[in-house]
Amino acid sequence: MRTEHGTTGPACGGGPGVSAPRTRGPEAERDASLSLLGERGLLPDQETATGLVEISAVAETPSQSGVGVIAPYDFALDRELWRWAPDDVSLYVTRLPFVPVPVTVDQASALSDGDGAARATRDLLAPEPLVVGYACASGSFVHGAEGQRRLQQAILDAGAPAAVTTSGALIEALEAVGTRRIAVVTPYVDSVTERLVTYLGEHGTDVVNAVGLGLLDHIWKVSYAEVVEAVRGADRPEAEAVFISCTNVLTYDIIAPLERMLGKPVLAANQVTMWAALKAVGRHPVGAGQHLVEATAPAGARAHGGRGGDEGDDTERRSARA
Known about the structure:
alpha/beta, 4-stranded parallel sheet, about 40% helix
């Protein structure tokens, strides 16, 4: 409710000439705003616009769905995750505690701690996300299939309405595209890459070739050119797809071009994480030209160029981000 004061009389005090405050309710506020905006909600001229402080109350409040994200302490690619999100999905991102070790099996083990994931989950619950995604590949595969299941369960036990992990999402994505023989590219040292190969083997996926960049830190600084070169070097004719591991590796813009170049699906850690998180709540990611996104899109979304949104109501789907 807004209070209007008269322009006559002294600036303070209660003597003669002071106008009594006038109040008006929400309906009067809305009518006053509409009179300034015009019938179609447009400002008719600059003179009318003068003095208009706020117009957002006139518009219908947009709805949103929340996706919680638990990321490692050194995660630097929040913007990349957002690119897969439809316009009416908000990401609530929190980070796991700092671990003073390089990117090794020890670091991955520390990040996979169920108690830490549970605390991070509880930190995310206030804005009521519909799902919580654990966005770390190595932290979710380092202890194998059983470790991934324990991590996911810890998130659910902490109160998340639904939960996905990057490594669990990878298995779902491989099943969705019908792939059992893959090549793998990672930024890791060999000992961490070997844990990924073992994890995939537990799920019946054969890794025909694996290439690791041997990095111990600053993984987010790997360029698109370096990733493309590594993927080309790792690919083999017998591989049905290629997986690029680590959520700290930028991939969004190169997935579709790599797929066209190789003639096969290319999956990436952030891509499968967002795909699975959105799928868990009946939504679909934005990713034009990306095989996983387009092959699993509802029929209406495919007809509209793979735009993300509700899986059940294409007519109300919002435009995808550029």
